[in-house]
Each structure stands twice: as structure tokens, then as C-alpha cells.
Amino acid sequence: MTSPTPVEHLDVLIVGAGLSGIGAAWYLQRDHPQRSFALLEARGATGGTWDLFRYPGIRSDSDLHTFGYEFKPWREEQSIASADRILAYLRETASENHIDSHVRFHHRVLAASWSSAQARWTVEVERGDTGERTTLTCSWLFCAGGYYRYDEGFTPQFEGRDRFPGPIVHPQHWPEDLDTTGRRVVVIGSGATAVTLVPALAATAGHVTMLQRTPSYVMPVPAVDRLGNRLRRLLGEERAHPLIRRMNIAKGQLIWRFAQRHPDRARKLIRWVNTRALPAGYPVDEHFNPPYGPWDQRLCAVPDGDLFRAIRNGSAEVVTDRIVTFTEQGLLLESGRELAADVIVTATGLNLQAFGGIRFTVDGAEVRLPETVAYKGMMLSGVPNLAYAIGYTNSSWTLKIGLLCEHFTRLLTHMDRNGYDACRPEVGDPAMPTRPLLDFGAGYVRRSVDQLPKQGDRMPWLTSMDYRADVRLLRTDDVTDPELHFSRAMTPAAPGAPAAVPA
User: For the domain bounded by 8-150+351-502, which CATH number is listed?
Assistant: First the structure.
């Protein structure tokens, strides 16, 4: 007879070793150095999005003084940075804080089941390419993998796709050996990826066309924060960092609030900026006048107006039309125009996947995500000891991640002091109105909104996109709440005994 292999137990299991996961590990180490933890990464490298995407020109669309971590100054001259620089920053953070030694690569979480009797999760993990399965247990599960699928992007069904003989590429799976030098490239899309790709490709391609069905709001932003760089030289990195960060947060919040309160004035201002950046007589209203209000979808930022510069010099153009079919030469449009192409890029968006597709059960009952409600934007109703990190859609992603991680570690401290093993959010009013978790007009959100949790119409069930409100809620307010219930683990003495003692 042989003894069963003991199952490894960790205090906190962080799923994902990208921007959010590395941040969560840093805060956990700072505030709870005695706790054991690991980061499970399905891929073979840290960095998440910034390691996955390899298309030309990939960069941030937020300044790195706010997109970077509060605890680690951004030291580069450019505040709108390329992916390789962001990736180096993330990996430096992980290395200098010894977080990388806690990462387990090629570990994909398949399922997690909660036991109230033991106050712990049992987590099923697939390791490597062999499909080998292993099991871990943890007291807390922290999902830091974002909200879109890493293994596939979204491409609509296009009529006649098989007729086109050239490469058809999605940016999420950009081939390393794709050479567009001197070739005619059509980029289908109008979002952040498309406006990044077009000027990057236009630098060497024969000609680039951005083909959009619906325009987006596009605004030029400085690639270099000149004031911030002057402050860094005058005050030094450590003293200047919090000041630059506060200034940039305030500026971003001011722009967002102005667009929310005065959408017509914001629309006119954006149009005026676009008109000044484009050639005289350019049909701005045809190609840069969306039918929705500013910030109903994320505003596309172009560093130093590189997209507009490519349009002005003739290396790129924008066409607003609908595709009838792919052809042997390119694309036939509803207007009757045919766009000639050697390469077609489908910058048509993402596929959402909540919590990386993990299957959750609580005391044997399956958790149906659309039936749950988000608590403080970081936990789910009825699900104990599960936290997740989703950042802002109207500002730098990391601003919210930092606040969520701080609140998470404060919650752990409260539980330690009071001897609690578990906490579970529960909606006090079953009749509370709900709406989608991501109250956002982007196509990738609309396609998948029915698969996501809901949010309520009041705190703590409202998923805030307001940084100032979240500072109060997550950083300064008490972690306790009448709708957050604490309990202690209890091993049942006999079948049917209670699973936990309520606090």
C-alpha cells in the first residue's frame, strides 16, 4: 500500500502573471509577507498582454506614469511607450521583488471548487502541453487574467474569404515572418489596435488603408510628457513620481468628466482637433465623427498624431464603408469600390472570457456567472474568498488594479485580526436592479455581455469607473459591510452538521 501524495496548499493562488498578477503579488508580499502564494501562468512567459501581442507598433494608449505601478516609477522619456519597454518594466518589477520565483508557467486553471467546511478552494490545474492534471488547494483565489481570451481574437464571418489569395492576419496572432514592405495592406477596424497598426505599417508598406464600418473618436496625445520629465530632472525620480501621477490622474479624470457632462461640446472639441490635424478639405465628418457620444466607447489615442501624419503624407487613408465580399484582388465594398490588397489585417476585436473560463462550484453547486453580482468591483455575490482584478475602461487600467489589491490585503488583515477564515458577499435586497458589469459600448462587450456577472445600482454593488470614488471606497473606507458576511471554518462532526459558524 502507498500513501496518497499530499496536495500542496497555498494561502493565496494568483491566476495570471501579467500586469495585474504581478501587482497583486507585490501588494501581498508587502502587507502579508508571512503568507504563501504562487502565480499560475497558462503561457510560458510573464507579461500577459504585453508578451502576447506582437503586431507592429503595439504600445500603450495610457501614459505610463499612471499605467505603471504606483510603487515603481516609470523612468523612460516617453510616457506613451512601446510594448517591449512595458514588458521590460513589468519583468524588472517581478525580478527585483523576487515575484518571478513564485511564477509557475504552463499552468492553466480549469476548475475550482469551494468547501465551506474547510474554508478552502480545491483547484484543478492542467500543466504543460501534455494535458497532465494536478490539484492544489488555497485559502484565497485571486483571478488576475483580465477579461478576454488569449487563444483567439474575434473575426466576423466575411463572404468570399477563401477567394483572397494573400495573407489574412488577426493582430492577436501576428506572424513573425510577415513582411509588408512595399505591399498594399488593408486594415479592417477602427479601434485602438487599428489606429496603432496603420501608421506603424505605413512607414514601410506600399500603402495602407484603414477600412472601418463605423468611425471612432481619435485624439492626438504627446508621446513625451515634457512637464513630467522636467519634474523628474528637478526633483528626482522618487519625489517626482507621485506628483506626476497625481497630475496625470487629475487630467484624465477632468477630460472624462467633461465628456460625460458636456458630450456635444466634447464632440465639437474633438472634431476641431481632428480638422487641424488632417489635410485641408478632408471629410472629417465621414471618417472621424462617430454616431455615439465621447467615451461611450474608449477614446483612441494616437501619440504625436502619427495616424493623422500618415494620412497627410499619403501613405495611409481611411475608408468608411461596408464589405460585400472578399475578392481575388482585395475587398468589394457596398459603395461599389474595390480595395486592392496584398495583405488583409482583421483588427476586428477581442473575444471576452470571464475568469479565464474557470469552472467554479461552491459546496457542490455550480456558480453561474450571469446570476452573480459584482461586489466593490472585486468579488462575486455568493462566492467566498474569490477576488478578481479588472481595471478601468475610461482610464489607465492599473489605477484600479492598485486600489483593488490594497483593499484585498486590508481585507485579509481584518480577517486575521478577528479569526475569520472566509467572507462571502450576499445581496441584501433580491429586488435590486442590475445591469451589465461592463457598462460600455464596445462591440466586444456587447457580444459577450450575457456571459458576465452583473452590477447593481448602488454601492457596494456598483462597479465604479470613478477613480476618486474608488479611492474612498477601496483605500480609506472600512473593509466591512453589512452585505459582506464573515465566517470561521468548521469540520462537520457528523453528516448534516453545519459547514461554518457565522460571525
Answer: 3.50.50.60
